[in-house]
Design brief:
heterodimer; A: 3 helices; B: mainly alpha; 2 domains
Chain lengths: 102, 169
């Protein structure tokens, strides 16, 4: 049996790689990819806690299942917004997105 | 600790996931980043399979690796011009981001490895799909019919919102 901590180490590393990408990338789609990494690492955590600490129950399992569905919805809306931004500005770099500031 | 097949599979999956996720946020070309994201998602599905949650692994492969990645690739092809490179970030900001991330990673790993968890048990054996379906459709305690319905409404709203936002006027 593999210790639970090993899975948690992998998901922690994935989460902080995602945060690093979110802080350093300047393209909207690249930032969205980083957010996807963060969501995915949290899903792994829920499943691992469910499997190792509370076997016989299904809370973590269903939380991950619904999180996958919600992140799909979130990605679809975000990409629609990004395509709309591209249509208006011909560019999806964060630096150029100051039209809505005032 | 003896080396078992389980452990070898886990180590291969973990290395695959970590390397792919680092590449996904450091590579210059965004299409490559999307491809590395696909690798990360497939590796995660592998972890779900290893934990005997085949249903969740299949959902991960279908929804994430199958659906979301295709969406990413299409939108990248629509919005990025030829030879689009990542914009150069200022050195100071880059180093600040890296330092903050590494510090937070260190703190989190330290806290997690110090923490005493409950007793760990691992029951081998597949979670039957019948049980998942009954829990998903039940209105009793530990039933999930309400979130199930709510997420269906959410997906409908998201379809309509996506069409409204992205259509040509």
């Amino acid at each position: 049996m593999i210790q639970m901590e090993y899975y948690l180490i992998v998901s922690t590393i994935m989460m902080f790689v995602g945060i690093y990408g979110f802080l350093t990338r300047r393209n909207l789609l690249a930032m969205l990819i980083a957010v996807e990494l963060i969501l995915n690492s949290v899903d792994i955590n829920f499943v691992v806690f469910n499997r190792f600490l509370f076997p016989g129950q299904l809370e973590g399992f269903f939380f991950s299942l619904f999180a996958i569905g919600i992140s799909a919805a979130e990605t679809a809306v975000a990409i629609a917004i990004i395509i709309n931004i591209y249509r208006n500005m011909r560019n999806i770099q964060v630096r150029n997105l100051d039209k809505m500031k005032w | 600790m003896e080396i078992t097949l389980d452990l070898i599979v886990f180590v291969v999956l973990a290395l695959f996931i970590v390397v792919s996720s680092v590449m996904a946020v450091t590579t210059k070309r965004i299409l490559r980043a999307a491809t590395y994201l696909l690798f990360v998602l497939i590796g995660t599905a592998g972890i779900y399979f290893q934990l005997n949650y085949s249903f969740l692994g299949a959902v991960q492969l279908l929804v994430y690796a199958g659906g979301i990645t295709v969406l990413y690739v299409f939108s990248i092809l629509l919005t990025s011009s030829e030879g689009d490179q990542a914009e150069k970030l200022k050195k100071g900001k880059f180093i600040a981001g890296l330092a903050a991330t590494l510090a937070a990673l260190g703190i989190c790993l330290f806290v997690m490895l110090k923490h005493k968890f409950l007793n760990q048990v691992f029951e081998h054996g597949e979670l039957p799909v019948r049980e998942i379906g009954h829990a998903l459709m039940s209105t009793e305690k530990y039933g999930y019919v309400l979130p199930f319905e709510v997420i269906s409404v959410l997906l409908l709203a998201c379809i309509i919102g996506g069409i409204l936002i992205a259509r040509k006027r």
